[in-house]
Amino acid sequence: MARKPSKSSKASLAALDQEPATIAKEHRSSTTINEDGSVTVDLAPTEQAGSEDQKEHYSNLIDQLEHDQKLQLGTKIIDYVDADDRSRADWLRTIEMGLDLTGVKLEEKSEPFEGACSAQHPLLMEAAVKFQSKASNELLPATGPVKTFVKGDNTVEKEQQANRVKAHMNYQILEEMTEFYPDSERMLLYVALMGSGFKKTYYNASLKRPCSEFIPSDQFIVPNSAPDLFRADR
To answer: Of the candidates 6, 67, 77, 150, which lies 20 to 30 Å from 85 by C-alpha distance?
Structure first.
């Protein structure tokens, strides 16, 4: 004989019906509904563990080293830098002599007589400026330097995505990264005079945006024997 459920039974059933929804709401990222209808709740979500691992990954390693280890590491780095700098001493002297011939350095001469003219022919500087001008027009257009293309099968969705990437990156360079064009033009002039130039592109946490800064080649210390950065000893 079936009995009619009491009010307390109905309240318990209603609570049971609402309980899974509450659990799913509070632990949405750690709740799994199985094929048999049961629910598995992970009280230690992987997202939280992943965030802790990521935080530990980006922690400052210098805090984990002993004082003696820091001294040993610092001494080794200084020795490597000095060795690399000595290896390019001849190149640095050549660059210094070449810059003296550009005519941009003012100096007083006493030979063949006191107060003699120290002017140099501007041929080298003219050639460097012409190179900078032509390279700037090609590499730094007014609409932005970024161009995109789709590798593999080209579809409408991929083409639209490529256009969005190009538009966003050009916006960053033209509007946010205000140093990009001036530093790039300086780099092109140094390339013409020194033969190479470097830029450091990184995310600046204080400015909260990417930055791309020019580094003169005489301040970028690499072993002189290195054919490229990938095959450099350090």
So the answer is: 67
Could you read off the pLDDT of 25-47 as tens digits, one per residue? 444 446 777 777 677 777 655 55
**Of 21, 15, 55, residue with least CA distance to 41:** 21
Domain span at 85 = 73-104+120-231
Q: How many domains does the chain have?
A: 1
Residue 98 lies in a domain: yes
3-state secondary structure of 206: coil
Give domain status of residue 170, yes or no: yes
What is the C-alpha to C-alpha distance for residues 201 and 139, in angstroms, rounded to an integer? 17
Q: Got the DSSP string for 97-148?
A: HHHHTTT-----B-SSSTTB-----THHHHHHHHHHHHHHHHHS-TT-S---
Regarding pTM above 0.70, the answer is: no
126-177 residue pLDDT tens: 999 999 999 999 999 999 999 999 988 889 999 999 999 999 999 999 999 9
Note the pLDDT tens digit of each residue in 194-220.
Answer: 888 899 999 998 999 999 999 998 888
- The reply to whether 2 falls in a domain is no
Q: Which two tokens stand for residue 50?
A: 């992943």
Query: Does residue 21 lie within any of the structural domains?
Result: no
